[in-house]
Amino acid sequence: MLMGKSVKNFSLADQVCELLKDAIIKGELKPGDRLIEMEIAKEYKVSQAPVREALSRLRIEGLVVHYRHKGSFVSNFSKKNVEEVYSFREMMEPLAIQKALNNLTDEDLRELSNLYKNMLTAGKNNDLDKVRETDNAFHSYIYRLADHGFMYQVWEDLTALSDRIWYLTSQIYFDKLDEIAELHKPILDAMYERDEKKCIEAFKAHMHFVWEKIRQDEKIIF
């Protein structure tokens, strides 16, 4: 069930949490799948205590739900959940962009450009995990550059849900993964111009591209 992975070294709860999160985000564990502590502990070769703690953390992140007398399950997902994530990001990220542009240096632009190039290369190599890693890093860099601790923490908390949407939609709505990277080019270009309005418009176009496809898709199942 869990791809035969095992946990090594210390911080067992952290490691179990990351392994389970990765399996949920990538769809290896499906919505509604029951998560039995004893089975997970046996699979990962750990005691039940770190598994219990990991499941508790994943409940906070919205990836797991717990029902009394029934146990823990991978949470279900709906278009409403997706709309909430997208609409919240659409409110928050323009503020991050605005603040980031105030702190932007030439070195930052080079770093963002490198992330974009790495994303594009990963897309051309059809490396799904690397595309997501660099996509996430691109947006995370903007949030860090905004120098707003509370907003960055909210972004971090939202990442798992965003990743879950991303892994599903990237394989449905994009024929080539480098198309995902290309959606970031207008954002990068606007940042080079230090044009706040154009940058925010580019970000919203990037978000709407996928959301509109989800909204109009009557067959998509989360």
* Sequence of strands across the biggest β-sheet: 1-3-2
Strand-and-helix sequence, N→C? HEHHEEHHHHHHH
The general outline is globular
CATH architecture of the largest domain: Up-down Bundle
Which percent range fits the helix content?
over 70%
Index terms:
222 residues, mainly alpha, Four Helix Bundle (Hemerythrin (Met), subunit A), 3-stranded antiparallel beta sheet, 10 helices, 3 strands
Topology:
Layout: H1 12-25, E1 34-35, H2 37-44, H3 48-60, E2 64-67, E3 71-74, H4 79-103, H5 106-124, H6 128-146, H7 149-173, H8 178-182, H9 185-193, H10 196-216
Antiparallel strand pairs: 1-3, 2-3
Helix pairs in contact: 1-3, 2-3, 4-6, 4-7, 4-10, 5-6, 5-9, 6-7, 9-10
Domain HTH gntR-type: 10-77
Keywords: DNA-binding, Transcription, Transcription regulation
Protein name: FCD domain-containing protein
Tell me what the structure shows:
- This protein has 222 residues and is mostly helical.
- Helix content is 71%, strand content 5%.
- It has 10 helices and 3 strands, in the order H-E-H-H-E-E-H-H-H-H-H-H-H.
- It has helices at residues 12-25, 37-44, 48-60, 79-103, 106-124, 128-146, 149-173, 178-182, 185-193, 196-216; strands spanning 34-35, 64-67, 71-74.
- It has a 3-stranded antiparallel beta sheet.
- Helix 2 packs across helix 3, helix 4 (79-103) crosses helix 7 and helix 5 (106-124) packs antiparallel against helix 6.
- The two termini are 19 Å apart.
Brief write-up:
The protein is mainly alpha-helical and 222 residues long. It contains 10 helices and 3 strands; from the N terminus they run αβααββααααααα.
